[in-house]
Each structure stands twice: as C-alpha cells, then as structure tokens.
Task: inverse folding
C-alpha cells in the first residue's frame, strides 16, 4: 500500500521542488544582503567609480541573477 | 648700558585644537587599505568642518584565505568532471537541464561566498578624523557596529605586530584606549600600524600631521 503512494511521485519532480525551495531561500538571502549594503552605504560613502554605488549595483545584479535562475529552473526542469 | 635681562615674549601655551589641523586631500583607490587624507569619503553624522585624516581597512593580504577558497570552489566542478571522465568518481545520472541548473546554482553560491567576504572587508572601516575616531565593524553583513570617540577622549594608543606575516607585510593591530568607562577601540590587521599610532599620537598632542 505504501509503495503505491511513493510510486505516484516522480523522483525528478521532488528534485525540482527541492531546487526551487533552495533557490527561493537564496533569493531572500540575496535581498537581505542588498538591503544591508544600502544600510551600510548610509553609514559610509566611498564616492568613486568602483566605490559604494558599484558595490551596491553588484548586489542588485546578484538578485537579478538569482531571480533569473529561479525562473530558468521553473521553465526547464 | 646693556640690558641684563630682557623678558621673552610669552610662548603660546594654549592647547592646539585638533579641528584646526589643515591637510592636503589626496585621491584614494576605492580598494585601498590605508590612505592619508582621502578625497570623496563621507560618513554619517560628519560635521561640516570635519576632515578625514586616515582611512583604514584590514590589510589586503588578510583576504588571501577566502580568495584562495573562491578559486578552489570555482575549479572544483572542473576537477570533479575530470575525475568523472576518468571514472575515478561516479556521479548520479541526471538529465542535462538538472545538471545545468545545479551547476549555475553552485556558481551563484560560490559568488555569494566571494561577495559576502568582499563586503565584509570593504565595509569594515576605521576613520580617523580631525575630531574623532570612527570604527565601523560589520560581521557577515548581519550585524553592524558603529562606534566613535572624540580625539580628546583618547588616553593612549599602542600597536602590536606579531608573527612573520605581520612583520613582513607591515600590518598589525592598533589599540586605542579611551578615558573612563568608554569602550576601547581596536583596529585589527591594518597596514602600517606604527604610522597610524604616530598620527593618532600627533592628533592627541595637537601636533601637525605629516
């Protein structure tokens, strides 16, 4: 009886769900980092080309990359 | 008749004001660890007449561990793939789209590791201004601690350099003791600790910086 329950689940569907959960958590982590960078940029500002604005924009790209991977995982898996 | 005694004009016995120190500002590289009078740096609650005399971060060489870690983690999938090709490692059979997503996710995590460590170094800053000492401590970006003390409140400043690496690369710890119940300041693994101590000592005694 128990075997029939397990047989109904697709192994790759479980893997997909696990990947999406981890990516979702990672996205929250990326947003938290970005918020902390913004908060730190209020404390000290390094007004240079490779200074605070550059570091903050890297944080934004990092969020975009995580969102992209999350959507990619939904589409191709 | 020659004068037997001529009174000398009174020497200026007034205590020099730290705020009156005038220094020439210089352009700073954003990834610098030590810079005298940096240009283009501002901080929260900075006074109008307050000038930054010293900008300090951990010595760049202290980042070697996580930089080496990032390089190792970046190369790890290539090594695993090579081992797999040589049949030294057996990997679970997964469809290519799963492998792609897992590999991209792995590299996103590796980048996250690099970025977190970089930010931790980038925002751990110590500033010595004409009026005070500001210490910004960031731990894993989850907590930040900003502490400041007036120059007048500094009682003593000392530095320590221990071990081969610290002496070879000229970095070490600077301890600033403040009066009374105020907490002391510790700048860890900063470049040229002797010079930093010298600047702070000059500032306390009101001498010209340089």
Result:
């Amino acid at each position: 009886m128990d075997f029939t329950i397990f047989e109904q689940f697709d192994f790759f569907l479980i893997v997909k769900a696990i990947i999406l959960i981890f990516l979702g958590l990672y996205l929250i982590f990326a947003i938290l980092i970005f918020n902390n960078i913004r908060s730190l940029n209020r404390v000290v500002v390094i007004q240079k080309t490779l200074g605070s604005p550059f570091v903050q924009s890297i944080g934004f790209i990092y969020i975009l990359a995580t969102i992209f991977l999350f959507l990619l995982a939904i589409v191709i898996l | 008749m020659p004068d037997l005694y001529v009174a000398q004009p009174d020497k200026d016995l007034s205590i020099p004001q730290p705020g009156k120190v005038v220094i020439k500002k210089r352009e700073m590289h954003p990834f610098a660890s030590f810079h005298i009078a940096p240009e283009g740096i501002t901080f929260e609650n900075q006074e109008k007449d307050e000038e930054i005399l010293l900008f300090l971060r951990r010595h760049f060489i202290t980042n070697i561990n996580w930089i080496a870690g990032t390089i190792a983690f970046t190369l790890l999938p290539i090594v695993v793939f090579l081992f797999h090709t040589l049949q030294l490692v057996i990997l679970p059979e997964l469809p290519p789209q799963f492998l792609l997503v897992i590999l991209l996710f792995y590299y996103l995590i590796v980048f996250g590791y690099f970025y977190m460590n970089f930010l931790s170094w980038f925002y751990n800053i110590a500033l010595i201004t004409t009026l005070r000492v500001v210490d910004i401590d960031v731990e894993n970006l989850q907590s930040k601690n900003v502490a400041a003390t007036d120059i007048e409140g500094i009682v003593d400043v000392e530095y320590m350099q221990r071990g081969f690496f610290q002496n070879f690369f000229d970095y070490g710890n600077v301890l600033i003791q403040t009066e009374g119940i105020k907490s002391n300041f510790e700048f860890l693994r900063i470049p040229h600790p002797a010079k930093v101590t010298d600047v702070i000592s000059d500032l306390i005694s009101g001498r010209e910086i340089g």
Notes: DSSP finds three helices and one strand in chain A. Chain A touches chain B through 37 residues (CB under 8 Å). Residues 46 and 52 of chain A are 5 Å apart (CA to CA). The first strand of chain A starts at residue 44 and ends at 46.
